[in-house]
Amino acid sequence: MKEERLRKNPEFRLVYRRGKSLSTSLLVLYVFKNNKGINRVGISVSKKVGKSVVRSRVKRLISESVRLNKQGLKQGYDLVFVARSASKDKSYKEIENSVKYLFKKSGLNNVEKNITISN
């Protein structure tokens, strides 16, 4: 679990500088290929979003929606989620929909369609 997180400032800066960004009204996602075989996730919530209780709540909502939706993602990427100030009063479902949309938009979904051949 611990190795699946981005923690150090240089790791975040590398993803910001060299990764590609995608956004919704609630979140911004930076994606950078790390060649480590695992996905590492970092979450950034600035003081613009709110006081510490609000920021912690937003972080928990984002991390929980990532945890529940990480199955089926391509491996080997660093992901940084940046919460926008609009996310402070949103429900879990709205945050989760935003995370799912960003995964889909970034091309990280490993969508394997089972095609059945009928005779």
TrEMBL record:
Top-level taxon? Bacteria
Could you say which EC number(s) this protein's record lists? 3.1.26.5
BP-aspect Gene Ontology terms: tRNA 5'-leader removal
Q: What class of enzyme is it?
A: hydrolase
Query: Does Endoplasmic reticulum appear among the keywords?
Result: no
Entry GO MF terms: 3'-tRNA processing endoribonuclease activity; ribonuclease P activity; tRNA binding
Asked if Hydrolase is a keyword of the record, the answer is yes
* Catalytic activity from the UniProt record: Endonucleolytic cleavage of RNA, removing 5'-extranucleotides from tRNA precursor
| Alphabetically ordered keywords of this record | Endonuclease, Hydrolase, Nuclease, RNA-binding, tRNA processing
Q: Which GO terms describe its cellular component?
A: ribonuclease P complex
| Pfam families hit by this protein | Ribonuclease_P
Residue ranges crossing the lipid bilayer per the database entry: none
Task: Please give the NCBIfam families that the UniProt record associates with this protein.
Answer: rnpA
Subunit structure as annotated in this protein's UniProt entry:
Consists of a catalytic RNA component (M1 or rnpB) and a protein subunit.
The job of this chain, per UniProt, is described as: RNaseP catalyzes the removal of the 5'-leader sequence from pre-tRNA to produce the mature 5'-terminus. It can also cleave other RNA substrates such as 4.5S RNA. The protein component plays an auxiliary but essential role in vivo by binding to the 5'-leader sequence and broadening the substrate specificity of the ribozyme.
Q: Which family does it belong to?
A: Belongs to the RnpA family.
What is the name of this protein?
A: Ribonuclease P protein component
Organism, by scientific name, is Clostridium sulfidigenes
Organismal lineage = Bacteria, Bacillati, Bacillota, Clostridia, Eubacteriales
Which gene name does the record give?
A: rnpA
